[in-house]
Amino acid sequence: MFTIAGVLSLYSCDEVMDNRESIAMEYLKAEIASVSKGAFRLDSFSKTNGYDQNFMGQNFYVLEWQADVSVQKECWQQKHTEGFSVMTQLPSPKSYYENLCVHFPEGATIHYTGDCHFINTEKGWRVDNLRAKIRNVFFLGD
């Protein structure tokens, strides 16, 4: 039998989960805008999983996510790079760098997956680390 305190406790747990998801989304949105210097924009975000983890005595909550990011201006990213760091112009000689970089034309959509590590502080949950990996790129007309 549930008591009022038990029901409120369950409700509070759900609120915390929602809070971490919204914190992760806002953190990712800010990270994308800052690191890509406006070349990318977060279009959609969803949590895919979450779990508690302990690493060297530190407790974390790991939120796994997927997101779609749109390319706002043509850019290039060094191959095998994770994250959102891009170049809006290729350095010279262009023929050399074209082989080392992935080209993202304006209007493309990039599907990312990743995870966000949280630590619980006195003032609530805080993002400690974020990882992102490109899974697919969709170009206009795909």
Walk me through what this model shows.
This protein is an alpha+beta fold. The protein contains two helices and six strands. The longest helix is centred in the N-terminal third of the chain and has 32 residues, at 4-35.
Count of discrete alpha- or pi-helical segments spanning 4 or more residues:
2
| Helicity range | 25-40%
Class derived from helix and strand content: alpha+beta
**Number of E-type strands:** 6
> What's the story with the biggest beta sheet?
4 strands, antiparallel
Extract low-pLDDT stretches: 1-17
**Strand percentage:** over 45%
- Spatial shape: elongated
Instruction: List the domain count as a whole number.
Output: 1
In short:
The protein is built from two helices and six strands. With 142 residues, it is of the alpha+beta class.
